[in-house]
Amino acid sequence: MKAIVVEKFGGPEVLKLKEIPEPRAGAGQVLVALKAIGVNPVDTYLRAGTYTRKPDLPWTPGTDAAGIVEAAGPGAPFRPGDRVYVYGAAAGGVYAEKAVVEASRAYPLPGALSFEQGAAIGVPYATAHRALFNGGGARRGETVLIHGASGGVGVAAVQLALAAGLIVIGTAGGDEGAAFLKSVGVMYALDHRKPGYVDEVLNLTDGKGPGLIVEMLANVNLADDLRIAAQRGHIVIVGSRGPVPIDPRLAMTKDLTVRGMSLANMTDPERAQVHAGLAAGFADGSLKPLIGAKFPLAEAGKAHAAILAPGARGKIVLLP
Ligand code: NAP
């Protein structure tokens, strides 16, 4: 089968399409013929070899995908032909035509969702869910600022927050980004490239600030988040690409909670619970993954360049 293989860390050009042996499903595992693969920013950090952990080489990237079960190992509660979305391969990654997955990390793909939408769930929706409800303790009627709402995690966070009855302020780049956020139901959409937009968040909340901030780019925004968060507010750091100077006194005087959140720390029972909750949202139509750009698997390098470029519009997927 064909898969993307990285033999040395580097730029997008190190993502090479190669022929590799087809994996086999063992006990409790399923072999899935992949129809769509989700691209996440972390795939690019790992490929570059600059992340907090480095994969052993040669390495196939990718965590999110959706497809059709081709074979089920003993004890795996799936049958050939089942449509599934998956979170992580048992070995290697999912930038491939097929992957073997632990059955506990394969989930029935709701009939209303396409394979592309299925490939947009595992990391983005679970991350958004954990950030809002576990990290941030989101409560109905509260105002949440989703700081970076136009990408994979951001759109998921918007939909989850709206479904839970929160008031949503979202940011994206440019007038077009703000218009995109309006189209996905954000009540107050701001352009994070526009000078002074952060003060607009204060205006929208009668000077009080949002009770919850879900932050996608903390190295740029954390100092401002501390300034605008409401008294006893919560800031959940989902994304950060470097260090940032902050004034801790702002956290002190407002009794703020600043909390980091990594999906990698999610326990298996927590994951099962979150995906059950997501299934309810897919069934009632409140959650609908949005697909931005699509690339053939062979052009994974272009997808990696695209996900780090401004102008996110939902999820980027690869098509094997
Ligand atoms: P994505 O699809 O590439 O979206 C990136 C988002 O960041 C877009 O909404 C983008 O908006 C926005 N952004 C750009 N400049 C910004 C600024 N100055 N202020 C606020 N937002 C800004 O990525 P994603 O999949 O949504 O992931 C978002 C971040 O979370 C990434 O850093 C990723 O590594 C991280 N992440 C962390 C976890 C975890 O477990 N902690 C899990 C998944 C993702 P425009 O393009 O419209 O400018």
What coarse outline follows from CA principal-axis ratios? globular
Give the distinct bound molecules: NADP nicotinamide-adenine-dinucleotide phosphate
The rounded distance between the terminal residues' Cα atoms is 10 Å
List unreliable stretches of 5+ residues: none
What is the number of beta strands?
15
Rg, nearest Å = 20 Å
Strand content: 15-25%
Which structural class should the secondary elements be placed in? alpha/beta
Q: Which helices and strands occur, and which strands form pairs?
A:
Layout: E1 2-5, E2 16-19, E3 29-39, H1 41-48, E4 64-72, E5 83-87, E6 98-102, E7 106-108, H2 115-118, H3 124-135, E8 143-147, H4 152-163, E9 167-172, H5 174-183, E10 188-191, H6 197-204, E11 212-215, H7 218-228, E12 234-237, H8 248-253, E13 257-260, H9 268-284, E14 291-296, H10 300-307, E15 315-319
The protein binds NADP nicotinamide-adenine-dinucleotide phosphate.
NADP nicotinamide-adenine-dinucleotide phosphate binds next to α1, α3, α4, β9 and α7.
Describe the structure.
By secondary structure, the chain is α/β, with parallel strands linked by helices. The chain has ten helices and 15 strands. Strands 3, 4, 5, 6, 7, 14 and 15 form a seven-stranded mixed beta sheet that branches. The longest helix is centred in the last third of the chain and has 17 residues, at 268-284. Residues 40-42, 123-124, 127, 147-154, 171-173, 177, 192, 216-217, 220-221, 238-239, 261-263, 307, 310-312 line the site of NADP nicotinamide-adenine-dinucleotide phosphate.
